[in-house]
Amino acid sequence: MFEKILIANRGEIALRIHRACHEMGIKTVAVHSTADAEAMHVRLADESVCIGPPPSRDSYLSIPAIISAATITGADAIHPGVGFLSENATFASMVEEHGITFIGPKPQHIALMGDKVAARGAARELGLPVVPGSDGAVSSEKEALALSANIGFPLLIKAAAGGGGRGMKIAADEAALPEAFRMARNEARAAFDNDQVYMERYLGQPRHIEVQILADGHGNIVHLGERDCSLQRRHQKVLEEAPSPALNDTQCDEIGRTAVEAMKKLGYRSVGTIEFLYEEGEFFFIEMNTRLQVEHPVTEMITGVDLVREQIRAAAGSTLSVAQEDIAYMGHAMECRINAEHWRTFVPSPGRVKAYHAPGGVGVRVDSGLYAGYSVPPHYDSLVAKLVVHGLTREDCIMRLRRTLEEYVIDGIETTIPLHQRLAVTPAFMNGHYNIHWLEKFLAGLEG
Predict the structure, then answer these.
(1) DSSP letters along 94-109, please?
(2) pLDDT of 165 above 80
(3) For the residues 332-345, what does the mean pLDDT come to?
(4) Mean pLDDT across the chain, nearest whole number?
């Protein structure tokens, strides 16, 4: 097992990884920008190294700075967390080339699934159902128009190197396709320095269902059920739950087995999440995230499996501590993403936290690095906390969610807690009758 792990991330996920390491008897190294010198994960780590100024490109995205920090401190492994360099195949390769273990998948699998066009082709070969669309990148408006006859409208044009909803445009009909195609390519070029795009059929009312995979590199692969991530704003997840209220046990088992078989063919290692759109009884592969997910606590709450611990063990060469038959699903869990944003306008709200009180009680988990007096910097993603609740039933879970949202105090900055409070009492959410487009319509209908 590793003796010291450098955590190449910040915020709540860095703190989450630190806690798992210490429970395993592993020392930690926190890296941080000058803006994060007082962050909780930096305070708690065994060692810390400042790797640059606030801009991400000069700190958390600086591969030389991170590898140098690992070398100087004698870390024998690097955990990339989520975001930043977590799905950067070049970073993973360079870490390994320096004799340090990268806690994640093989670099070639990161590269494969990071290219959305290649990932679609691989998914098809691995036996995963895919949304009808182009076989590869679409290079011109003329080609897009020709392909649209077979795919059908409406169409979704997506950046091949995309993520987070950037480089995605909808064409309702043939007349709208040329402009949507140009806009998608321009956005893709600006966001990812890669203007390749591909096309898919745009599904009208799908759910976003993802399957959590865990693999040890020795051929042992399990799935830990599904998560429903359909509550989204501008393709960004807002609230996740497990199990999905839209699926029955047979459907869950079927898509879980399909995902496991695909990963066995691929020879996958580490945690991973295969994401699907689900509509009218059919699943369609959209992408695979080759890293830990922000919403991983939802799965941990209903299975009792520590995904970060298993991820670390797999990277160290150990076999999984659980087999598929050992995994039992217990009750229902939900996660609210608490962002430092105005809940109605979604304008970022960095600043000093004047007062902080996290909710507690049975079945409550809060992953956050906030504390009274901490200043939320303006330079990074606005996620500042994850409120996760568990109940014996979905109804119990919702009641617990309402109670904890009332208890949660973050004073001094705006947060999205009021949005979650409204969601928790909305009939469509309470009944589980929502899809990936529902939240946008809900927000459009709100006042104040």
Answers:
(1) HHHHTT-EESSS-HHH
(2) no
(3) 97
(4) 95
pLDDT given at position 135: 83
Enumerate residues 6+ apart whose C-beta is below 8 A from 396. Answer: 331, 332
Check residue 213 and report its DSSP letter. Answer: E
Nearest one of 30, 29, 18, 21 to 1, comparing CA atoms: 21
Asked whether 215 and 263 are in contact (CB, 8 A), the reply is yes
Burial class (CB in 10 A: 0-12, 13-18, 19+), 44: middle
- The residue among 92, 6, 11 whose CA lies nearest residue 49 is 6
Which residues are bridge partners to 285 per DSSP? 130, 276
In DSSP terms, 226 is beta-bridged to 211
Task: Give residue 100's pLDDT.
Answer: 98
Q: What is the pLDDT of residue 166?
A: 80
Decide if 199 contacts 188 (C-beta within 8 A).
no
DSSP for 110-173, written as a single string: HHHHHSHHHHHHHHHHTT--B-SB-SS-B--HHHHHHHHHHH-SSEEEEEEEEETTEEEEEE-S
Band of the pLDDT at 163, cuts 50, 70, 90? low
Residue 10 contacts by C-beta under 8 Å, 6 or more apart in sequence? 32, 33, 36, 39, 41, 60, 81, 380
Active site members: 291
- Give every CB contact of residue 159 below 8 A, 6+ residues apart in sequence: 116, 166, 167, 168, 184, 187, 188, 191, 192, 194, 195, 196, 197
285 vs 126: CA distance, rounded Å: 11
Contact by Cβ (8 Å): 293, 5: no
Residue 56: closest CA among 34, 28, 29: 34
Distance between CA 112 and CA 287 in Å, rounded? 11
Please report the DSSP string for 380-423 in residue order: S--EEEEEEEEESSHHHHHHHHHHHHHH-EEESS--SHHHHHHH
**What does the pLDDT average to over 31-54?**
98
* pLDDT score of 448 more than 60: no
**Domains of the chain by range and CATH?**
4-82 (3.40.50.20), 132-201 (3.30.1490.20), 207-444 (3.30.470.20)
- pTM for this entry: 0.91
Which pLDDT value is given to residue 164? 65
* Token pair recorded at residue 9: 């991330």
Report the Cα 421 to chain-centroid distance in Å: 22
Which pLDDT does position 422 carry in this prediction?
Answer: 97
